[in-house]
Automatic annotation (TrEMBL):
<protein>
    <recommendedName>
        <fullName>Putative thymidine phosphorylase</fullName>
        <ecNumber>2.4.2.4</ecNumber>
    </recommendedName>
</protein>
<feature type="domain" description="Pyrimidine nucleoside phosphorylase C-terminal">
    <location>
        <begin position="431"/>
        <end position="494"/>
    </location>
</feature>
<comment type="similarity">
    <text>Belongs to the thymidine/pyrimidine-nucleoside phosphorylase family. Type 2 subfamily.</text>
</comment>
<dbReference type="InterPro" id="IPR017872">
    <property type="entry name" value="Pyrmidine_PPase_CS"/>
</dbReference>
<dbReference type="InterPro" id="IPR000053">
    <property type="entry name" value="Thymidine/pyrmidine_PPase"/>
</dbReference>
<dbReference type="InterPro" id="IPR036320">
    <property type="entry name" value="Glycosyl_Trfase_fam3_N_dom_sf"/>
</dbReference>
<dbReference type="InterPro" id="IPR028579">
    <property type="entry name" value="Thym_Pase_Put"/>
</dbReference>
<keyword id="KW-0328">Glycosyltransferase</keyword>
<dbReference type="InterPro" id="IPR017459">
    <property type="entry name" value="Glycosyl_Trfase_fam3_N_dom"/>
</dbReference>
<dbReference type="Pfam" id="PF02885">
    <property type="entry name" value="Glycos_trans_3N"/>
</dbReference>
<dbReference type="InterPro" id="IPR013102">
    <property type="entry name" value="PYNP_C"/>
</dbReference>
<dbReference type="InterPro" id="IPR035902">
    <property type="entry name" value="Nuc_phospho_transferase"/>
</dbReference>
<dbReference type="InterPro" id="IPR000312">
    <property type="entry name" value="Glycosyl_Trfase_fam3"/>
</dbReference>
<dbReference type="Pfam" id="PF00591">
    <property type="entry name" value="Glycos_transf_3"/>
</dbReference>
<dbReference type="InterPro" id="IPR013466">
    <property type="entry name" value="Thymidine/AMP_Pase"/>
</dbReference>
<dbReference type="InterPro" id="IPR036566">
    <property type="entry name" value="PYNP-like_C_sf"/>
</dbReference>
<keyword id="KW-0808">Transferase</keyword>
């Protein structure tokens, strides 16, 4: 069916943020609803001064809009470069062929390269609703993507954004698949590797549903929203950078898929592989280190899934001519003490400063990862990397390099502190027998992290530690008592997120 204009409505900006979901807000008694019978969730195309976008209809049942007005979500408003008071044109749109491919996948059929390309193209042009995206992700979960499909998906996602070229024979990178609070090794690894002399341009993500992403933590120290020209300037001067990947448009489809995947709480190993590799290859990497934390409340929960992800990572990388090394690490409990941007930044700076009170698990893991990356250098023998990493850290070179990177990115700021803290103590004596990563991350988020940089929590115990009754387990950090109380109300329900097994005397 051809697209024909049905009506126009005058734009009013309501400022409703739906992340990257394109929403059209109209009243039920407006002309377009009366003429077309549009209901909630109807998909329509809108046009503003030559820019067009497929949107999902949502109905306003109040006086926020008149029957002559329409509004758009902030994402759609920005995409169309809309202007208040101007006319918005509303169109019917033809059914997307790619949705037929998605339905086919849900029924267990294998997708061709062309079909995957069409799906990713339509996602990149914001033609899929959240429901459509959920259908696609559901079709990919549970081992439903074979190796060939993962390769096609990786390539399609790679082609959807920009691709960087550095002119260096070896360009290294690291990535952790996630799910482990406080695991902020990147901010330690990058300066160690850059100080050694390897080029490591790191583009990182912000948190979507977690209490901190790498970019959120780095932003405590320095600006991370650099354009491509500024990114190149930092890398050329310091061998590395730590910036938010959203400003350089590397695999933008991945950001959309991740936002839905995390809400659905699905672990699609095929999507995970395509997500990681498309961004790393787009960033110009020739050698990649992948960290897979393995644990019952981490993102990867079984050894079988970890080995499957590892096999796919290595096989798909080879098809792109990339060397990828995958390591499995302990994901049974958080790394470091802080969970939340400023608190994780404090841990990072303590490690880089060789503070005797720095969290040793964060230090040792960062040194292990840095050593593995240093061994990508053709001049370094296996087993030498960790020793070199230790020397660079302990000599102060890593701290100096980190400060230099921050300064070139725009400044080196002091770590702020929260206005309020609150201790949560043990109700009984015993051994710490379980720590739930997911619920602990949720608790940190309820204090205001990551949007409030100082918010989050400190975890003061580790697995197998003996604790006394009334001993502090967690310190909550927030800028308001209301936020502290809000987090505490969750902890009262989920108080076994740190499980203490009482010792039975004989």
């Amino acid at each position: 069916m051809s697209e024909t204009c049905t009506t126009t409505l005058r734009l009013k900006n309501l400022g409703i943020n739906t992340y990257k979901d394109a929403i059209l807000y109209i009243r039920k008694d407006c002309n377009v609803c009366a003429a077309e019978g549009f209901e909630v969730q109807t998909r329509v195309r809108v046009n503003f001064k030559g820019r067009s976008l497929i949107t999902t209809v949502q109905i306003i049942e109040s006086d926020l809009l008149t029957y002559e007005e329409a509004s758009l979500s902030t994402y759609a408003w920005s995409y169309l470069q809309a202007q208040e008071g101007e006319d918005l044109f509303i169109f019917h749109h033809k059914q997307l062929a790619s949705l037929g491919f998605v339905r086919s996948k849900l029924y267990g059929h294998t997708l061709s390269q062309n079909e995957i390309n069409e799906i990713i193209k339509d996602i990149s042009k914001s033609r899929f609703s959240d429901i459509n995206l959920s259908m696609f992700l559901a079709g990919c979960v549970g081992g439903r993507l074979n190796g060939e499909e993962i390769f096609y998906l990786t390539n399609a996602m790679l082609q959807s954004g920009s691709r960087l070229h550095w002119g260096s024979q070896v360009v290294v990178d690291k990535h952790c698949v996630g799910g482990l609070p406080g695991n902020r090794t990147t901010l330690i690894v990058i300066p160690i590797v850059a100080a050694f002399g390897l080029m490591i341009p790191k583009t990182s993500s912000r948190a979507i549903t977690s209490p901190a992403g790498t970019a959120d933590v780095m932003e405590v120290f320095a600006p991370v929203e650099l354009d491509l020209k500024s990114m190149r300037r930092v890398v050329e001067k310091e061998n590395g950078c730590i910036i938010w990947g959203g400003t350089v448009s590397l695999s933008p489809v991945d950001d959309v898929l991740i936002s839905i995947e995390r809400i659905m709480d699905l672990d699609s190993e095929g999507q995970m592989v395509a997500s990681v590799l498309s961004k790393k290859i787009a960033a110009g990497s020739t050698n990649i280190l992948i960290d897979i934390p393995l644990g019952p409340t981490a993102k990867v929960r079984s050894i079988s899934m970890a080995n499957l992800v590892k096999a796919h990572m290595e096989a798909i990388s080879r098809k792109f001519g990339i060397e990828t090394k995958v390591i499995l690490s302990d994901g049974t409990q958080p790394i470091g003490q802080g969970i939340g941007p400023a608190l994780e930044a404090r841990d990072v700076l303590a490690v880089l400063s060789c503070d005797k009170n720095a969290p040793q698990d964060l230090r040792e893991k960062a040194l292990l990862l840095a050593g593995e990356i240093i061994e990508f250098s053709p001049t370094i023998q296996k087993g030498e990397g960790v020793k070199i990493a230790h020397h660079i850290l302990e000599s102060g070179q890593a701290l100096q390099k980190f400060q230099n990177i921050c300064l070139v990115q725009g400044g080196f700021s002091e770590i702020p502190k929260a206005h309020h803290t609150h201790e949560i103590t043990a109700v009984s004596s015993g051994i710490v027998s379980n720590i739930d990563n997911r619920r602990l991350a949720r608790l940190a988020k309820l204090t205001g992290a990551p949007h409030v940089k100082v918010a989050g929590l400190e975890i003061l115990v580790k697995l197998d530690h003996f604790v006394e009754r009334h001993q502090p387990l967690i310190i909550l950090h927030a800028n308001s008592l209301e936020q502290i109380n809000y987090a505490l109300s969750y902890y009262e329900i989920e108080s076994d997120m740190i499980k203490i097994t009482e010792m039975i005397s004989r």
